[in-house]
Amino acid sequence: MHFTYYSVWAxxxxxxxxxxxxxxxxxxxxxxxGPGTVTVCTLAGAQFGFTLVxxxxxxxxxxxVLQDMSSRLGASARLGLGEALMRIMPSPVLxxxxxxxxxxxxxxGNAAYExxxxxxxxxxxxxxxxxxxxxxxxxxxxxxxxAALFFGKYKALERLLxxxxxxxxxxxxxxxxxxxxxxxxxxxxxxxSVPEGGWLTAIALIGTTVVPYxxxxxxxxxxxxWGDHGSVGExxxxxGLSILLGGVVSIMILAAAAGAVYGQAVSGxxxxxxxxxxVWGSGAHYLIGIGLLGAGLTSAITAPMAxxxxxxxxxxxxxxxxxNQFRWVALSIVAIGAAVALSGWKPVSLIxxxxxxxxxxxxxxxxxxxxxxxxxxxxxxxVNGRGANLLGVVVVAVTFGLGARALWRVxxxxxxxx
Length: 418
Fold this sequence. Notes:
Number of strands: 0
Number of domains: 1
Shape: globular
CATH superfamily: Amino acid/polyamine transporter I
Radius of gyration: 20 Å
Strand content: under 5%
Largest sheet: none
CATH class: Mainly Alpha
Distance between the termini: 55 Å
CATH architecture: Up-down Bundle
Structural class: mainly alpha
Number of helices: 17
CATH topology: Amino acid/polyamine transporter I
């Protein structure tokens, strides 16, 4: 029996009896609501008002579709995405090629992400405590993330991230309420359109939400949470609920910027706080600071987690050696990210480059996921049905088209000079 998007609602346990405590899905929300999300959503709202709300809605739906597959892979097949890819590759050469691509996408990409996460979290501390030493703040967040990854077990990390996500979400929703956005204008942004100069921002909005490394993170986390017990239906409900919450928070950040700083020159969330402060006092400054700090810290933990999960799956080996591999891979990502962040590169530049690259990389990783999810030998009755495949193909096609258009617009001026 193919597993469709409808069969979960009639799974053995009724929804009323399911435990819907947040878990792996919240880790995904923690990962994509990072400083990149805050920065890109703020810039989108400031530059284009509510015009690009549709991009966040599409990104949220796409994330729910793809992460649903990842959660199903981990909960039913008890496999991470990296493990599954290695199993279905028909030859050692293909395994090497795919492994190298995954390594490049995660290790290099997430190291760049980590720099933006740490720098973004430091901006949050600056909003709370004033202009102290940014290097000290970056170092403090790096040490906190490194300690959590080295000493924390999965369940403890999950609880910590769920708490941080809820605090961060409350801060950004409150900020949006303070900004008093125009609700009819917000609803008009649901109609797809891209203003002049808005293509790269639209790609970045999608790239900051539908994050390739989250597909690896979610499968591994679902395996850890539900691999030995629990239902696939429970995993899917939790995934959808958590990601929907994350999508709403992203839209609230854009709405706050559109309501408070539309048409103004801004560089990120800290400028949003400054614009609200004359009306609402220092409380707005603290709200943004808490939100940025939460976004930076949660993403500073989840990016190395995803890299460590994926690369240890690719390397294989006994369980005790995997634990050590996980720790050292995760700490390496934190260390590289801290070194880049401390080098003095502008955090906004780091964040925007990583988000744009994400939007281009996403179709490749999502295609790998679709291939895995159609292997009945791995998933049995939970293999993708026609509906799941159709939605997945639509997501891949749209993200590929948007990414190709953005890349073409960047390369065209360069090719014209050759």
